[in-house]
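Case study B.
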Amino acid sequence: MARQISLDRKELLIAPSLLSADPLEMATSIASLKGQHDWLHVDVMDGHFVPNLSYGPALVKALRKRYPQEILDVHLMVEPPEAFIESFLDSDPDFLTVHVEATAHLHRVLGRIRERGVRPGVVLNPGTPVESLFPVLHMVDVVLVMSVNPGFGGQSFLREVMSKVTDLCRFRAVHNLSFLVEVDGGLGPSNVLEVAQGGADVVVMGSAVFGTEDPGKTLEEIRKKIAGDS
Ligand code: DX5
Ligand code: ZN
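Model:
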C-alpha cells in the first residue's frame, strides 16, 4: 500500500522507538502514542554487530499488517545486512537503514533496497567519520546519525555527533540532494530543541517517550516545545 512520505523538511518529525515499548503490549504502546508520532522506529539487533538482540522481520510484517498506514522506519543493526535485507524488504517497511560499518558492499545494498521499492537509509556510529558516507549520499532518502553507541535504549546523548549533522546539511545543500537527517539515541525533552536547531529533520526517541506514564502527552509537550521556538 502506498503511503504518503514527504521529504520536505518543514517540521521536525518524531519517530518513537519500539525498543522501549513493552514487547508483550506492543499494540497498547502504539495506541498510547495517540497519533502524536510521525514514524515508528523499529530497532533490529543481531547480537553480533551490536551486543544485544531484539527482533526480526516477523515483527515488521505483523506491524505492517496491523498498521497499513504507519510509516515504518526499520534500523538494521545486523552484520552483514545483505544476508538479511530480502526478508525485511518482503515485510514492506517504508525506510530500511543499514550501517556503513556493517558491510563492505554498501553501494550494492542501498541499490538493492531502492530496486525493491523501499526507501534506503544509511546509519553511522558515533565513532565513524561522516565522510565515509559521501560516496553514497545521492542514493539514500535518510541518513541516521547515531548519538549513542547502538545496542541499548536509555543511554546518554553524545553531543559531539552534532557536527556530523551540520556537515550533512551542508553536503546536502551543496549537492542539491534531499535526504532527511535523523538523529537516534539519548534524545528527550531536555535536548530535542538543540538537535532540531542543529539541523535534524527526524528524531528517534525511545525511553523518553515510552518510559513516561502518558507517551501521547509527552509527545504533545515535546511538539509544543519545538513549536514555541519557531
Ligand atoms: C539504539 C537504538 C535506538 C534506541 C533509542 O541502539 O538504535 O533507536 O532505541 O533509545 P533511547 O531514545 O532510549 O536512547
Ligand atoms: Zn535506532
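Helices lie at 26-31, 57-66, 85-90, 106-115, 162-174, 192-197, 207-210, 215-229. The remaining cases will be described in the next quarterly update.
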